Amino acid sequence: MNITITGRDSDTVAVDNAEIILHLVMDGEDTLSKLDFELKPAMTSIGKITFLYGVRGEQHRALVGLGTLAKLDVEQLRRAAGCAARAISREGYRSAAVHLNLSTNVERVTPESLVEAWVEGWLLGGYTFDKYKQHPREQVIDKLLLISESNDPQSFNPLIARSVSRAESTMLARDWCNEPANVMTPSHLVEQVQQLFAERNVETRVFQGEELVHFGMNGLLAVGQGSRHQPALVELTYVTDPSLPLLALVGKGMTFDMGGMNMKTGRDLSEARFDMGGACAVIGALDYLVCNEARANVVALIAIADNVPGSGALLPSSTVRYANGLTVQVSNTDAEGRLILADALLHAERLGADEIIDIATLTGSVGHALGLRVAGVWGDRSCTEKLHSLGELNGDRVWPMPLIDDDEDLLRSDYADLSNISSSAYGGANAAALFLRRFVDDSIRWTHIDMANTVQSPADRGYEAAGATGFGVRLLADYVIHYSTNR
Fold it and tell me: Which of 174, 338, 397, 461 is catalytic?
């Protein structure tokens, strides 16, 4: 899509050539008096798009509701932009212009953040995944003109480019996570990662077969033994400043989770393909960092497997011995994510990581606690607080959760050092975090993000399309940039 910016009075030809002009409206504002019609309260609700069709030969217009001034922030702007992009596209317009002006000064929204939020939300809101349909929906809009109140609108071009890059990396994560299970197999995911980072400033190493055995990555081997596709650990190293402490990003790449021998049941299990959402978040974040040549010393570790039943599948009661000597009784093969993440966490320590952030679609329990829009985060307090503050700005919202030491008793096994599930029906997400903590040395700062509830959207909403959300891409990328600039 061609996105350009102009001043209010500097390019009237481009504005006049747009098929439709968008105006931002908020509750209680009178900015539309020049349009000579009365603004109704319903028109200002967040994401509400009201079309004002012109007579033949006149431009069409649309109102984009931003809600109330008290609640307006950059996330509300992104959501409104996403709603607008989807509505304008469905109407068949090929070009649009939007007046990016707020008549009231909003402390939480600067001219720069207004431009960034609108571009990011617009692109993400126009996303579709219909490559397997016989007649995919055509991407109608090919031109977007931003009309700024700034005296120097061209100074925003770097911000626009950055927002485009953020949206593209997020849509990459959505694309891969949305792929059907017969396409995005473990072997295909490995190939896709290798192709994505080939010829770029990323060193790629893949551990499979005997190499997994050599390094004692027995969690991956155990979980993947029921599938005809080999499990793997992919190591991606991106270093532009080796003087920085090494930060490890660990993602769960379960390309399909049938639960193993504790097989899931249901009318439609297709959502089990979203169990690689953590891996996609890490890959998308790294893609963004590389594209923008960000200062960093990062290693991304992607633990990849299928969790399917079969004649060779892992059996409940089996015991897995890890490279650090810990043994785990597999009480439930559907609690497999923590088994493969444990290998990746131990490998991050082997590489000398000073800090580790893992992200995974780990438990359904986190959704019972936090709903469908906010992920849970556990671990190092300074990291969890920074992730929380970043998420409030970029839309990948997280909420700090407790690690209660006494609850480790719930992971006790009579036959091994640990059980892979809690003996209690309550606090499953907390128990999973406690399990992972056992595989991180006390000298390493560690944080765990459980995004099982935010990996997908049940329907089109704001700048999210039904299906994979790409959650975590912007959160991790922003954290790496913060981490690097404050060292």
Answer: 338
Q: Are 294 and 162 in contact (CB under 8 A)?
A: no
Determine the Cα–Cα distance for residues 209 and 335; give it in Å rounded to an integer.
23
- pLDDT tens profile 252-269: 999 999 988 998 887 778
* pLDDT lower than 50: segments of the chain: 33
pLDDT at 176: 98
Answer whether 0.90 is exceeded by the pTM: yes
405 DSSP assignment: G
Task: Please give the pLDDT value at position 28.
Answer: 67
- Let me know if 166 is a catalytic residue: no
Domain-wise residue ranges, the chain: 2-151, 168-485
CATH superfamily membership of 2-151: Leucine Aminopeptidase, subunit E, domain 1 (3.40.220.10)
Write the pLDDT tens digit of every residue in 148-166. Answer: 988 899 999 999 999 999 9
- Residue 80 amino acid letter: A
Query: What Cα–Cα distance (Å) separates residue 137 from each residue in 93, 140, 169, 258?
Result: 14, 9, 21, 31
Count CB atoms within 10 A of the CB of residue 344.
Answer: 30
Indicate if 131 belongs to the active site. no
Q: Which CATH architecture has domain 168-485?
A: 3-Layer(aba) Sandwich (3.40)
Which is catalytic among the residues 94, 264, 321, 373?
Answer: 264
